[in-house]
Amino acid sequence: MTDKTTPKSGWLGLPPLAVGLGAVAATAVYGWLFLLAESEIAVLGLVALAALGGWALGRTGLPDTLDAAMRGHGRSMNGAILLGLLAVIFLLGEEHFPLLMLTTMLLYMTVALGLNVQFGLTGMVNFAGAAFFGMGAYTAAVLTAHSAVPPLLILVAGGVIAAAIGFLLIVPVVRTAGHYSAVVTIAFGVLFKTFLEVNDVLGGPQGLMVGPMKLFGWDFNSSPVLLGVEMSFYVNYALLGGGLAVLAFVLTQRLERSWLGLTLDSVRLDETASACFGLNVVRAKVLAFTFGNVLAGVAGALYGMMISFIAPNSFTFADSLLMVSIVLLGGLGSLWGTALAAAIVVLLPEKLQILQEYRFLLFSGLVILMLLFRPQGLLPRKVRSYFPSWRPQQ
Amino acid sequence: MDIGLLGQYLANGVMLGTMYALVAVGFTLFFGVLDVIKFSHGDVLMLGSFTGFTVYIGVLAMGIENPWLMIAVILIVSITTTAAVGALIARYLVLPLKSAPPLNILLITLMLGTAIREAVRLFYPDGSNPKNFPALLPTASVDLGGFALRADSVILVGAGIAVIIGLNLLINRTRLGLAIRAVAQDEETAKIMGINYTLIVLVTFAIGSGAAAFAGIMNGLYYNEVNFGMGLLLGLIGFSAAIIGGLGNIYGAILGGFLFAGLQTVGAVALPFASAYKDVFAFGVVIALMAWKPTGLIAERSSDRV
Questions:
Q1: Which residue of A has its CA nearest to B37?
Q2: pLDDT digits (tens, 9 = 90+) for A268-322
Q3: Nearest residue of A to residue B303, measured between CA atoms
Q4: All residues at 6 or more sequence positions from A24 whose CB lies less than 8 Å from its CB, including other chains
Q5: What pLDDT, on the 0 to 100 scale, is given for residue A386?
Q6: Can you tell me the distance from the alpha carbon of B231 to that of B117, in angstroms, rounded to the nearest whole number?
């Protein structure tokens, strides 16, 4: 607890900012190496290194120092994280597959952030995450094929459609509590996938083609040339996906820190008490539900454009469960936890091809262990500090 | 629509309703004693029918040919195994989380369901393909004015309804049932009265899972097919049925089961769009019903104490 009495020096006696920047740089290098690692041995080695390093650094108090760095030097740290992400994208420049994985991870992170607002902050579980994700993707497919709507607006349309269909569920979701509300979203998730499979207009089980993203006349499916090197066209999507994920992160963080976030928290902790204090419980729930669905819809639209072909099988109940496990694995309400868990859940099985087949088995086992032994998640959410400079008395 | 086809749909609907009610009764029993949802129920059912299938192969290898004897062995082994699995799940996954938020239990059992499903798909020999469950019941049929009522359907529905009635009697008329109801009503008081709480919970989970295994075998005998994914939809339907009926109430579960089967049948027969939409229709109505009656048709009597 040295860093609390002497806030100037942190981990190993280094100033927090230095530690923070170092950690960001190390994470970026690690991410780059991990995404490029080809052999199973290398991947397993990197995973072991991360697990061991994470455990050791956690024990030596690095998280507290990082926390101090984020609090004291927010701008520099956020800038460094952005730079790190950009650096990883450009360093991967010519590699198709790693960039595809990175973008998928960023989009899943966006969805999981939305689910986190619903589940982690407000306490409404949404077991139809993949369905809302799919709505965005199908909106993109229909609009790129049958209309001349500018693709950037299609992203917005994906969010709007997801929100609009979400509104149909609002009444049952808000009126029911606990298990009863779980059945609404579960039933909806299954309904959505079954509907897509039997509906011929939307391509049935075979799915639909999705047109590419275009921005100010620039086709995202053509390869950018940078400093005379032809990059993978996935760089476009990685940049836009990164932008989307950052935007979602900032929005979610702002939401959490605002009075709205406080309302959501209190609705989760005790609905009756919140209502007694004059908080509008219904409004809070509608806000959280819609916020999450919009994020899922927008991310889904971009995902559809990126993989350019979608089918009902990408949006099953199992995928919704995978999204919920991201939120749970990271820690309820913990945004950085969500980011970390999205990386683990999306990247690990892609990198370890032996695991690909066992993916769902592995993650279900992991979540079971997590719930039994560490229900607060990998990076548990901190208790709100209402007065930034106030510290609990030792 | 001619009478024959209508009768066919009606017979099918009653069969489905019995199956759903059996699954829903399990959900409602678990919710009664522990206030938890055990979502792995559907996959436990699937495990029951796979156990039954494995036993069938074993019995066939031992040279037993009498179908009634076969069914008896299949039922006994598969119900016992599944009941044991149910009790183990309760002991090691549900009871340790009893004081955690209720959604954690929902999640842990959802994940367990996925794990069971995936394990069967990956590790059962050729588990990812559907298996041909044998038609062991007599298939003779009676012609009833244009539609053929098959003997196996009648036997299955009869047996299913007998099990439901038996469960109802067990809960409402026996000492064990009294203990289960006491635990469901008030855990603390039940303990003070000398009821072995843990034992009762485990027995309840065993009974519910056994009923699911019965429904699984029923499903296998009726459709002559079992596959690793069958539990997900059946569990989901059973859960929806228990919920629309009202959790914790055995009559609600039966009502919900037959209601869902009725919705599917109506969706397949009477509505203008293609019958492939029957599940979309049924789940849509479930969602609408939840909006109308948020705690089910036969609601729990509860109020928030502040």
A1: A179
A2: 888 889 999 999 999 999 999 999 999 999 999 999 988 888 888 888 888 898 8
A3: A272
A4: A77, A80, A81, A84
A5: 65
A6: 8
Backbone angles phi, psi at B131, to 5 degrees: -105, 145
Q: In the structure encoding, which two tokens stand for residue A15, read together?
A: 């100033």
Report which of residues A126 and A43 the model is more confident about. Answer: A126
Window 158-177 of A: residues touching B by CB (8 A cutoff) are 169, 171-172, 175-177
**pTM over the 0.90 mark:** no
The Cβ-side half-sphere exposure at A240, using a 13 Å CA radius, reads 24
Q: Do B306 and A368 touch (CB under 8 A)?
A: no
Mean pLDDT value across chain A: 83
Angstrom distance (rounded) from CA A307 to CA A237:
10
DSSP per-residue codes, B81-131: HHHHHHHHHIIIIIGGGTTS-HHHHHHHHHHHHHHHHHHHHHHSTTTTS-B
In 3-state terms chain A splits into helix, strand, coil percentages (rounded to 5) of: 75, 5, 25
Q: Which of A122, A194, A202, A357 should be substituted to probe chain B, the one whose Cβ sees the most B Cβ atoms within 10 Å?
A: A194
- Facing residue for B239 by CB, picked from A172, A183, A324: A183
Q: Please name which of A75, A71, A85 lies closest in space to residue A29, comparing C-alpha atoms.
A: A85
- Contact criterion met (CB < 8 Å) for B107 and A360: no
Region A121-132: mean pLDDT is 90
pLDDT tens-digit readout, A181-198: 888 898 899 889 888 888
Other beta carbons within 10 angstroms of residue A258's beta carbon come to 11
> Looking at the complex, does the CB of residue A186 fall below 8 Å from at least one CB of chain B?
yes
- Identify which of A179, A321, A328 has the shortest CB distance to residue B247: A179
In contact, A244 and A106? CB cutoff 8 Å: yes
pLDDT of residue A388: 59
> Within its chain, how far is the Cα of B176 from the centroid?
21
CATH code for residues B3-292: 1.10.3470
pLDDT tens for A323-341 read: 988 888 888 888 888 998 8
Cα A226–chain centre separation:
29
> Is it the case that residue A104 has pLDDT exceeding 50?
yes
Contacts of residue B276 in chain A, CB cutoff 8 Å?
198
At residue A12, the pLDDT reads: 66
Which residue among B108, B290, B304 sits closest to A180, beta carbon to beta carbon?
B290
pLDDT digits (tens, 9 = 90+) for B215-229: 999 989 888 888 888
Residue A111 confidence (pLDDT) above 50: yes
Q: Residue A160 and residue A163: Cα distance in Å, rounded?
A: 5
In chain B, where the domains are located: 3-292
Question: With contacts defined as CB-CB under 8 Å, which chain B residues touch A186?
Answer: 236, 239
Query: What is the rounded distance in angstroms from the CA atom of residue A281 to the CA atom of residue A284?
Result: 5
Whether the predicted pLDDT of A11 surpasses 90: no
